[in-house]
Amino acid sequence: MSDEFISENIKAALKNDPPGEWMTELPGECIRLSSGYPTPALVPAMQLKEAVIGLLEEEQDLPLHYLGSPRALKLKEQIQKRLGERGIRVLEEELLVTSGACQAIDLIARILIDEETVVAIETPTYMEALEIFQNYTERFISIPIDEHGLQTNLFEEVLAERKRKGLAIPRFLYTIPTFQNPTGTTMTEERRQHVVELATKYNFLIVEDDAYGELSFNKRPIPLKAMDKEGRVLHVGSLSKVVAPGLRIGWVTGATEFIHALDWFKKDLGHPFAEATMASFLEYTDFEKRLKILQDTYQGKCSVLLSALEQYLPESVSWYVPEGGYFVWVRIKGVDTSQLLTQALSEGVSYVPGKYFFLDQKEGTEFLRLSFSYADEKEIVEGIQKLGKVVTKWMELRP
Ligand SMILES: Cc1ncc(COP(=O)(O)O)c(C=O)c1O
């Protein structure tokens, strides 16, 4: 009966794959190379406990009201400071705190996408963003990524052709230029410059998802937002990967007109207590020191994973070497990684099959995403050993 009441747009969206399909149920003992979660030991549980105690002693019931507290209001300043470190200078009215980067992406989709709107994405891309956009439109242009990020020359060719043929130019490009999910790749400076120029030339916006931007192993790439002179870039960020995902604190920065519209639809659907807790934590944390620990830890874990891949995977298997973030993108030629997953799970290791990161899932058959963030170094080696075993067996049975 509910069918007659549900809106046509929602009914159409419900025909897509359900959200979170990539999150396979894992057997108890499984080594989780699938989870893009922070290292448990680096989630600052005790410091957050202190932050909560300090907050409630100082502000009592205030952070628990709808309106939030003076401490929560400080969060914007703290985010502005973090952005400043990356060369992004924004005014208070150009910044909206959201419930994670995902709420920011959803709000952006809501204010920018009409049914007929064309959205440009890089391929492969973050599956949750893909799911969000698919709730609003079916019209996508997908531009492939190589080891240097989005292939901007191909993008330009597509744009030029669409213009020539009188086809719609995408309203925005969604990109993760820095330590991308799932490929771990980073867009070169030249390509960054190019894509910002293309946005001007063809008149579209860029949604820059920078969820991993602070987790660099060496060089800190310049965000697109720091190159943006025309207010074309909406920069989305998150503290999930560097503090704690359960607090779900993210943000979006951009021109005031956009922030005004985003805020309008966000209404007061934020979390004043989580915001105040995060603000209190940031107030008493040496964040640069914390970042250095995170960067060193993830770099160490990444290199353990890469060495294990060299050691335990057959020679025909290839991968991109990341310069930061959480992920390594692996290609196993001739192997359907969705089918292989059953064997991997029964051996005791998980990964995410590549297909979930593609609009056309067939394109992702031979790929898989490994995460070095969650498992510890010993588990990473064991996990890759297990993966090596199932891949080798698969190849022997199906030469
Ligand atoms: C590229 C990207 N953007 C956004 C998010 C989600 O961030 P948040 O937890 O702030 O919603 C993730 C988390 O996996 C991600 O990989």
TrEMBL record:
The lineage of its organism: Bacteria, Bacillati, Bacillota, Bacilli, Bacillales. Its cofactor is pyridoxal 5'-phosphate. One of its GO terms (molecular function) is transaminase activity. The keyword Transferase applies. Signal peptide: none annotated. It holds the Pfam family Aminotran_1_2. Keywords: Aminotransferase, Pyridoxal phosphate, Transferase. Residues 32-386 form the Aminotransferase class I/classII large domain. This is PLP-dependent aminotransferase family protein.
